[in-house]
DNA sequence: ACATTAACGACAATCATTACAATATGATTA
DNA sequence: TAATCATATTGTAATGATTGTCGTTAATGT
């Protein structure tokens, strides 16, 4: 999808940042791994495959920049690293995650689901919600197969 | 509340762990700061006030142990540190948080609110939920006072 | 093409967390 | 009571992720 990267390019320019080859390479890696939840190191290694001269610090800086522009979201699943996840284009809010405590797989939920809950929180706590993070920990469908003991 | 620490003592014993003075001091600091969201370092400094001989590693291990026993929950608000939060006694699930992006305050929501959402996730994604993390980022009631521009 | 200045790359520094190895504690049993 | 065994603790070293520094490079506007 070429238009996608074009639009990100525009976002950068609007915010007065340059689109350097390194940044372009980093964004394109993220696009190619939209399903995954890559750590900075992961991104670094992947970008290095196409642009071997790139430095780790640059990747960190680029990811920080993209986070600031809300192109990606930074998440933390409790292992020691931050992970970066492309935000769905035009999505009002960040999507949710299912983390399997058996196999470690991370699945995404694009549906909002929190509409009612957010309304309640805004009203009852008088809190103006700008963003959210929702992660469920449990057993994924693949690992739960067969052994259906109700706990 | 003395019975609270007594019950934690029992939990430890049931899991075949001892309640050493260091562990007791750590738990009591957590109880005295139930409202806060202390990092391991914070806990260390506070415990040190009453038990100056305690080592940082011991605090880390104790917090890890308490996390395993589900006495505390480990959370991460995106700054580089893990924070530890006492779980409400008897609470089925971990409570939620409101993080103010203006003043940094962290408030808690004890109400579950996710019942319906979890039912949907369990059914539709065939995912057996064991735990969750829900954090809202936005403007807290104190910071939102007065300037009520609808964004 | 040229100057300005943001961006880069390599590496050092920092900060949180974990690993290690030696010592201490405390219960159990001879 | 003393020997034994397992677990816990301590201080410190090691690790691993992330950030800072600084001299160099290259993107952009004229």
From TrEMBL, chains A, B:
<dbReference type="GO" id="GO:0000976">
    <property type="term" value="F:transcription cis-regulatory region binding"/>
</dbReference>
<feature type="binding site">
    <location>
        <position position="132"/>
    </location>
    <ligand>
        <name>Fe cation</name>
    </ligand>
</feature>
<feature type="binding site">
    <location>
        <position position="143"/>
    </location>
    <ligand>
        <name>Zn(2+)</name>
    </ligand>
</feature>
<feature type="binding site">
    <location>
        <position position="100"/>
    </location>
    <ligand>
        <name>Zn(2+)</name>
    </ligand>
</feature>
<feature type="binding site">
    <location>
        <position position="103"/>
    </location>
    <ligand>
        <name>Zn(2+)</name>
    </ligand>
</feature>
<keyword id="KW-0408">Iron</keyword>
<dbReference type="InterPro" id="IPR002481">
    <property type="entry name" value="FUR"/>
</dbReference>
<keyword id="KW-0804">Transcription</keyword>
<keyword id="KW-0678">Repressor</keyword>
<keyword id="KW-0805">Transcription regulation</keyword>
<dbReference type="InterPro" id="IPR043135">
    <property type="entry name" value="Fur_C"/>
</dbReference>
<dbReference type="Pfam" id="PF01475">
    <property type="entry name" value="FUR"/>
</dbReference>
<feature type="binding site">
    <location>
        <position position="140"/>
    </location>
    <ligand>
        <name>Zn(2+)</name>
    </ligand>
</feature>
<protein>
    <submittedName>
        <fullName>Fur family transcriptional regulator, ferric uptake regulator</fullName>
    </submittedName>
</protein>
<keyword id="KW-0238">DNA-binding</keyword>
<dbReference type="GO" id="GO:1900376">
    <property type="term" value="P:regulation of secondary metabolite biosynthetic process"/>
</dbReference>
<dbReference type="GO" id="GO:0003700">
    <property type="term" value="F:DNA-binding transcription factor activity"/>
</dbReference>
<dbReference type="GO" id="GO:0008270">
    <property type="term" value="F:zinc ion binding"/>
</dbReference>
<keyword id="KW-0862">Zinc</keyword>
<dbReference type="GO" id="GO:0045892">
    <property type="term" value="P:negative regulation of DNA-templated transcription"/>
</dbReference>
<dbReference type="InterPro" id="IPR036388">
    <property type="entry name" value="WH-like_DNA-bd_sf"/>
</dbReference>
<dbReference type="InterPro" id="IPR036390">
    <property type="entry name" value="WH_DNA-bd_sf"/>
</dbReference>
<comment type="similarity">
    <text>Belongs to the Fur family.</text>
</comment>
<keyword id="KW-0479">Metal-binding</keyword>
